Amino acid sequence: MFGALSFTSPLILTALAALPVIWLLLRATPPAPKQERFPAFIILRQLKTSEETPDRTPWWLLLMRLVLTALIILGLSGPVLNAPAPSERNGPIVLIVDDTWPASQQWSLRRDVMRATAAEAGQSGRQIFLAPTAPQTSPPEIEPMTGEALREAEATIAPKAFTADREGALQTIKNLDRYFSESTSPEIRWLSDGVATEGDADFANALAAIGDLVVYVDATAPKYILRRSDDTNSTLKFNVNRLKPGLESEIELIAIARDGRELGRASSTLAADDVEIETIIDIPLALINDLASVRIANVSSAGTLYLADARDRRSLIGLVAQPESRANNLLSGNHYIRQALDQHAAFLEGGIRELVESDASVIILDDVGRLRANEEEALISWIERGGVLIRFAGPVLAEAAQDRTPQLTPVELRGGGRAFGGALTWDTPQRLDAFVPDSPFAGLDAPSDVLVRRQVLAEPGGETTLRTWARLEDGTPLVTGERQGAGAVALFHVTATPEWSDLPISGLFVEMLKRLTFLSSLGPDSIEEGANRLYAPYRLLDGEGRLVRPDETAKALTEAELAMLPTPVREPGFYGAPDSPLALNAVGPQTEFKPLSLPGKTILPYEATPPLSLTPPIILAALLLLVVDGVLALVMSGKLSLRPIAAVVIFSAISTIMFMPYAASAQPLDPDVDPVAIDAALSTRLAYVITDDPAIDQLSEQGIAALSRELVRRTAIEPAPPAAINLDTDDLSVYSFLYWPIAPGAEPPSDEALVNIENFMRFGGLLLIDTRDDERSVGAGTTPEGEALQRILSELNIPPLTPLDHDHVLARSFYLLDTLPGRMNNNPVWVEADSTGSNDGVTALIIGGRDWAGAWATDNFGRPARPMGAGGPRAREMAYRAGVNIVMVAYTGNYKSDQVHTPILLERLGQ
Questions:
Q1: Where does the record place the Aerotolerance regulator N-terminal domain (predicted)?
Q2: Closest CA relative to residue 389, chosen from 517, 508, 495
């Protein structure tokens, strides 16, 4: 050992003693032979009678050959840099490795220690026993291995998505007694993950009783864990925990959608003395429902990844608006429903027809008796498409059941209701019975302090028994439900207020409503199968936080099993359908995350510099010297001239010098591509021009985003979120559609922006200019937006325009329309008068004032952002169709126009 340098085969170094002998052998070189002509007189004349002696090898060549020989000897001796110090012990080594998700955050440090142990065992010939601590379904028997076998095992062992099962590892180690004896007691090296588990002290004491124990821990590297906390209506809250205080750290969370795109980021600073911080990711409702996972940036671990599933989606719940007489919060069932689901859903109030036409996935009717015929038909159609209808009883529903059972109830009802505990009754208030296994509420605990004082009774019979999801102790139904098409109907036989029962003021009420709203995500199959439904593994989580495909050993789990901590038979990951999976995370609220503390034990930090073998570079240097020696030998023997070698060296040097300036000067001619342009080129995006008015820009963004969603729903075009365009700086060549709202008083763009727009239209882009003044532009009068448009067009090189007619391809590209309606339809829409000369016969410019973005725009809850003019929802639908036609022309050209004119073309061809 020389400092940090050691040799795996030091005896080979004795060959260096032969260098003087080699020097003596190499120093003499016979003269080079000469070629002579054979004529006799010439030979006789050149005969010499003096004695010749052999020439000597030049000293510098002799020195190079000695260095070459020394390098070969050093390379064969196996030099190692930073090799571990040889242990004074000669017994076996037991290597305990915490191959868990906390260890994955600095897994390379464990691999370095395993490599060092393998090198040490290779030098001393000691046996090694490798014992991982991550739980396994069937732990294999541990066999002794050599240092080379440990090197191979080190390359295959990887962290698992579990916490350590050190008690199980201890039992395995105790089974190694047959390999140990008093004279060969083992040396135990525990490569810990630094996280405490139950019984660590007992585990360490038991190991110390078997042999000499050394525990490796992370000295400075931080460890993190990510947990979900309560969220509000529009935010996601997460708690980031650090194992122990350290330096001030910047924590960044990244939210990822199911299709892999990034939904949002949030950063926070963890102070040096803090170990926990709360971080909020503020994203809209629609994006929350696309959420697949949230991770800590730049940390690879299953413990720093949160898997979001269908239960994390925030349902849009429709509530029927109640009259002012019931507006008092404490008397309103809607108040208790909101209080129960406020953390898990967004709400929309309105009439039944409005709720059905909205994007609500759940509609709750609080004490609604009779339904009108058109409302019933609309609700039935909505339920069969996948909606969940939840009804609550009350005096109105009980009165309606006097004549006949109201529409859309799961079971037949008795009129009038049933009271408990009154002066004229003989029954006492009833408690809840346990939930049956095939109920959506299976697994919930029925609290004993929830009493029911009044209810609406169901007609007894087989159907009532089958459709009862919750019942009272006397067997009467509390909640009934049934599947209808792709949706479901559920009825609480009590009110949503505490008037009839204590259920609305209990925690059970929250869980029951969560289960029912969750049916809209899981689908109707979960209603029939209940708690016994199995969810097949879809993607499983490894220790480094990667989602991988399950193998044949992965098992399907029930919802109750997915709520437990992960084990080898319950691997963390996604289960169920890809569009609405359930998630089992590697960590949960009850997962302990505290630093490992073992007072009195030998603690060592992981080494940051692993052993490095110097044999390859030394052997490579020796081979290069051998090639040089061969070339010099050929030169000195006269078989190779120095001139070609010198010419090659000089030519290479001159070429390098000549081409270096050209390579440097070529760099500015190949600038970096704008990342925004790259993203737009790789994904389809509709774009809009930003103005100096934030309100207009927000409406444009909402409108184009809503149109993009409609395109995904109706056509084969699947646009990404819209792009905001700055005409002066952004590259328009990667876009096909550009919406330009004209603000009052807008000035003409700069010359660079005008050239950008003209090139956009010239090379295939479609520009939609919207003055949004259709309702204010009457007769010959002009509006501020119209005046601004005139100033812009006076600077822009555009072709002649003509009013749009119903035969234009814009009216036939997808839907058959007479015009392109928006929020208003008073004045004509202008397009190119003659577009046959460019852009494949497709207009590059559309000008109107119909406020198309205002007609398309919706807020974060899917509600229209601006009211329509005459026509209501039907007019908005026509505006969406106009937008679809415009975008289809922008992306597909005149293919539909060719189809429209096919009969005329065939007639001209005589067919």
A1: 5-79
A2: 517
Alpha-carbon span 740 to 335, nearest angstrom: 44
Domain 224-308 fold: Immunoglobulin-like (2.60.40)
CA–CA distance, 885 with 878 (Å, rounded to integer): 11
Cβ contacts of 683 within 8 Å, gap of 6 or more = 719, 720
Under a CB-based contact definition with an 8 Å cutoff, are residues 811 and 818 in contact?
Answer: yes
The distance of Cα 815 from the centroid of its chain, to the nearest Å, equals 37
Q: Kindly calculate the radius of gyration of the chain based on its CA atoms and give it in whole angstroms.
A: 40
Q: Are 302 and 545 in contact (CB under 8 A)?
A: yes
Q: Which CATH architecture has domain 93-218+595-610?
A: 3-Layer(aba) Sandwich (3.40)
Average pLDDT over residues 546-553: 87
Question: What residues form DSSP beta bridges with 484?
Answer: 487
Is it true that domain 675-903 has CATH number 3.40.50.12140?
Answer: yes
Give mean pLDDT, residues 221-243.
78
Q: How far apart are CA 221 and CA 269, in angstroms?
A: 17
pLDDT in tens, 167-219: 888 888 888 877 877 667 788 999 998 899 888 888 899 888 888 899 998 87
Strand order in the sheet with 612-613: 5-7, 79-81, 612-613
Instruction: Show Cβ contacts of residue 359 under 8 Å, excluding neighbours closer than 6 positions.
Output: 316, 861, 862
pLDDT at 105: 84
Q: Which helix (H) or strand (E) holds 689?
A: strand 685-689
Fold match flag (93-218+595-610 vs 224-308): no
Between the CA atoms of 616, 619, 620 and 622, what dihedral angle is there, to the nearest 10 degrees?
160
CATH architecture of 315-528: 3-Layer(aba) Sandwich (3.40)
Q: Is 815 exposed, middle or buried (0-12, 13-18, 19+ CB in 10 A)?
A: middle
* 793 burial via Cβ count (<10 Å: 0-12, 13-18, 19+): middle
Task: Answer yes or no: is pLDDT of 51 > 90.
Answer: no
C-alpha span between 681 and 735 (Å, rounded): 8
CB 510: neighbour CB atoms within 10 A? 16
Contact yes or no for 408/380 (Cβ under 8 A): yes
Cα(287)–Cα(264) distance, integer angstroms:
9
Higher pLDDT, 666 or 598: 598
Contact 818, 847 (CB under 8 A): no
Sequence-ordered strand ranges (E) for 354-502: 362-366, 388-392, 418-419, 430-431, 451-452, 454-455, 468-471, 477-484, 487-492
Question: Which residues contact residue 110 at a Cβ distance below 8 angstroms, ignoring those fewer than 6 apart?
Answer: 97, 98, 103, 191, 216, 606
Spacing of C-alpha 688 from chain mean position: 28
Number of Cβ within 10 Å of residue 471's Cβ equals 22
Domain range list for the chain: 1-81+613-640, 93-218+595-610, 224-308, 315-528, 675-903
Which position has the higher pLDDT, 189 or 681?
189
What's the confidence (pLDDT) of residue 142? 84
Of 107-121, 248-262, 275-289, 466-480, the range with the highest mean pLDDT is 466-480
Structure tokens at 359: 């994007």
Reference 8, options 79, 94, 83, 73; nearest CA is 79
459, 458, 441: which is closest to 450 by C-alpha?
441
| Burial degree of 867 (CB within 10 A; 0-12, 13-18, 19+) | exposed
Residues contacting residue 782 through CB under 8 Å, at least 6 positions apart: 790
**What's the pLDDT score for residue 98?**
92
- Give Cβ neighbours of residue 741 (< 8 Å, ≥ 6 apart): 688, 689, 691, 696, 699, 700, 770, 771, 772, 853
